[in-house]
Amino acid sequence: MEQTLLKRKMFLAGEWVSREKTIDVENPQNGEIIAQIPAASKEDAILAINEGVKGAEIARNLPTYERISILNKVANWIEDRQSLFARTIATEGSKTIREAEKEVRRCIQTIRISAEEARRLHGETIPFDQSSGNENRVGFYQRLPIGLIVAITPFNDPLNLVAHKLGPAIAAGNSIIIKPSTLTPLSALLLAEAFHEAGLPKKVLTVITGHSSDIGDELVTNPAVRMISFTGGYEAGKIISSKAGIKKLSMELGSNSPCIVLSDADIPDAVDSIVSGAFWAAGQNCLGVQRVYIDEEIYSTFEVLLVERTKQLRMGDKLNELTDMGPLITEKEAIRIENLVEETLQEGAKLLCGGRRNGAFYEPTILTNVHPESKIAKEEIFGPVVILDSIRDLDEAIQKSNNVMYGLQAGIFTKNLDFAFRAIKDMEFGGIMVNDSSDFRIDSMPFGGMKQSGIGREGVAFAIQEMTEQKVVCFKIGSNF
After folding, report:
1. What is the distance between the alpha carbons of residues 123 and 35, in angstroms, rounded to a whole number?
2. Which of 76, 249, 321, 393 is the most exposed place for a label (fewest CB within 10 A)?
3. Selected catalytic residue, list 99, 117, 252, 333
4. With helix as H, strand as E and coil as C, how does 316-348 read?
5. Is residue 442 a contact partner of residue 396, using CB atoms and an 8 Å limit?
6. H helices within 80-229, ranges in order?
7. What's this model's pTM, rounded to 2 decimal places?
8. What's the DSSP call for residue 105?
């Protein structure tokens, strides 16, 4: 039976619009074209910005209780349509239906947390009389919306990463333009529909679909845009920051996450956590485990158990509830991983399992004997490949963990508090997960990295801080007061 092609409109300043030029959206599992979306032009980007400036004034004047109400209505709308959202994520992207269902639940939580944090936009009083001569001054600061925000989102979490930008922006009283990946735009458009149905005023939100080559420069460089929130690769982030001009930047630029397993660790728990952390969403996860440093005392045992557990993963149809891992986002990405692994093997690495490609599918792969300066050890793989290495002690593990230019999150497995706190102090990462893999996150915690992993922090309350500006108010009162 032939599937009807879905033709989606984009959400331009509160209006659903189509364009003659379109972009095909494919299911990476089989290459089937599942939808067509508008290919926005530079003129569309200019229109979105001009209308977004007006929307910023509307959003700024939207009372807090109305922002809270809209956000809760959005969460309710999604909650009533969880199956639709999950199937959309799983069909247009790499995630299995179980992974997609979890993303939908997290999105609902992200929006609800945004509603809660809207009521916590507090300032503080300032004791101006701490400085001599200011005894007759009193005042405070408050947090105000920054204005129009452009958010650029990737393919790997096509719903919840959009929610992490959209929810805080609305909670803080901003307008926002979302530019989703052209590979997975349907989830973002569904989320726009939720906001539309919840009564968000027109002009406050745009979800613009198009190629970065056509609309990216305008969105990034236009001075009317007051902030850019970007999640993606380091090279793209570097280009954006060089073009943006004087505006606020928040960037999450990926990682090359390590996990340390010490001899006193709960080995079965560490194995399960690392397998999940390495191969969730086919390894296309900025928090995904890429390097594992294992105490030499337990290395052999750990390697056997990790390979055994990895081989149990079921790869196949994303919509099958029994499937553990789906395809990469495109066959081109799978070929990139295949070539990277082959290059590493030619350098002397040893393949413990996996290493085979079938179209866009690439088997969960474990390598050992990888040279620490090889490309696969230094850069972000962003695929289902993990590297094992033995270490003599914690000091060596920390040194090796820090020997990359990324620093998003890391994990350490140990029952020794002294070891845990030494890792917390010395590892150069934005988050240290103790007795968890690097791939642990809740949507309310501060999330961001050090070094090339980015600038700023996400996590709803912390994103709201990034999306607001402080205004100081000082009263000079009469001497007879």
Report:
1. 46
2. 321
3. 252
4. CCCCCCCCCECCCCCHHHHHHHHHHHHHHHHCC
5. no
6. 82-92, 97-118, 160-171, 186-197, 212-221
7. 0.95
8. H
Task: Say whether 97 sits in a helix, a strand or coil.
Answer: helix
- Residue 286 annotated as catalytic: yes
pLDDT of residue 480: 65
Q: Quote the pLDDT of residue 4.
A: 60
Domains and CATH numbers, the chain: 6-253+454-470 (3.40.605.10), 257-442 (3.40.309.10)
Is residue 391 a contact partner of residue 293, using CB atoms and an 8 Å limit?
Answer: yes
Q: What is the pLDDT of residue 226?
A: 98
Catalytic residue among 286, 331, 380, 466: 286
* Rounded (5°) CA angle 348-307-406: 65
Handedness of CA 339, 327, 178, 109 (dihedral sign): negative
- Orientation angle between helical segments 234-243 and 212-221, nearest 10 degrees: 50
User: What is the per-residue DSSP string for 418-434?
Assistant: HHHHHHHHH--SSEEEE
- Pairing state between β 406-407 and 361-362: unpaired
Residue 138: its H or E element:
strand 137-145
Please count the CA atoms within 13 angstroms of the CA of 462 that sit on its side-chain side.
13
Cβ contacts of 314 within 8 Å, gap of 6 or more: 322, 323, 324, 325
What is the model's pLDDT at position 43? 98
Residue 374 phi/psi, 5-degree rounding, is -70, 160
> Which residues lie closer than 8 Å to 451 by C-beta, 6 or more apart?
405, 406, 407, 428
Q: What is the DSSP string of 349-405?
A: -EEEE---EETTEE--EEEES--TTSHHHHS---SSEEEEEEESSHHHHHHHHTSSS
Place of tokens 């001899």: 263
In the chain, how long is the greatest CA-to-CA distance? 86
**Cross-sheet strand order for the sheet of 6-7:** 6-7, 33-38, 22-26
pLDDT reported for residue 1: 36
The DSSP element (H or E) to which 48 belongs, if any, is helix 42-60
User: Which tokens sit at 116?
Assistant: 């809660």
